Amino acid sequence: MVVTRAWRNGNASERDFPVDRVSDLIGADDTFVWVDYTDPRAADLEQVEEELGIHALAVEDAVERGQRPKLDRYRDSLFLVVYDVDGLDADGELVTHEVKAFVTRQALVTIHGADVDTGAVERRLDANADMADHGVPWLVWGLLDAVTDHATSTVEDIERRIDELEDDLFEHGDPRAQQIQRRSFRLRKALGVLRRQVVPTRDSVASLLHGDAETISDGIRPYFRDVEDHLQSIADSVDQLRDAVSSVLDTNLNLASNRQNTVMKKVTSWAAIIAIPTAITGFFGQNVTFPGEGQWGGLFASLALIVASSLVLYRVFKAKDWL
């Protein structure tokens, strides 16, 4: 599926026109276009290559899935790869969608799967239609800004989940140590994936700012700087959250060790208490004469000794917080 839009003199002029008209439309210097492909075929990309003169290597990269976030420069075009972050799934795994873009002086071509909703980009562009005079850089900014906002929302969600983990650590009763451990590792993995996508994207934006001075005019440059600042802030937050997850893991292990020590103290204390009646009954079970043998008084005296000794030990261990 393909959606096309064109602007002339900073105003929207056409929509849903055939791709084979792109070269004719951009023949006018005051016109720029956005071609948005969803799961394109190889023939579609060959048509784009012909219409816009895209480098063959860039088209080859666009066909392959799993490209790393990057910005490649060619003589008349740029090839941009970013990832749209769609939060965490039910298992705590990071959900990301690959978005590729060809950027020329008068055209932006985006390529992505059906999972990507470009409606957020369109709404952002429509809300900032007064910036359309900046041409294709305005389109690129809209794409990058939408991707950055989604990443920001994901970081906020991860931060909330880490706060819940920290609360669960010290909840009354069994804090489900294994479950906390599993959730912590998943969050740490998600943060690692997010960082590997955000940092290269930040570098790509910085490269656009510093390497395309003629393409990105002074009027729109502050907006790209704003995106760069947000991406840097996300990268810093990810590093801090990774430290927080590591702290949760360490605390969870320490608490598990403390609980094990507590269990050992309780087992030892009860073993000592049980040893008292064992010793007394063992003593009176010997084949020797002792005071009270064969009398009810001797039985009650031994029982009283067992109970008294056990209570003394119980109170001593309780006072030491062993029980």
TrEMBL record:
Superkingdom of the source species: Bacteria
Gene3D superfamilies: CorA soluble domain-like, Magnesium transport protein CorA, transmembrane region
Keyword Transmembrane helix: yes
Species this chain originates from: Curtobacterium flaccumfaciens
Keywords: Cell membrane, Membrane, Transmembrane, Transmembrane helix, Transport
Topology relative to the membrane: Multi-pass membrane protein
Cellular localization per UniProt: Cell membrane
Pfam families per UniProt: CorA
Protein name per UniProt: Magnesium transporter
Family named by the database record: Belongs to the CorA metal ion transporter (MIT) (TC 1.A.35) family.
Predominant location category: membrane
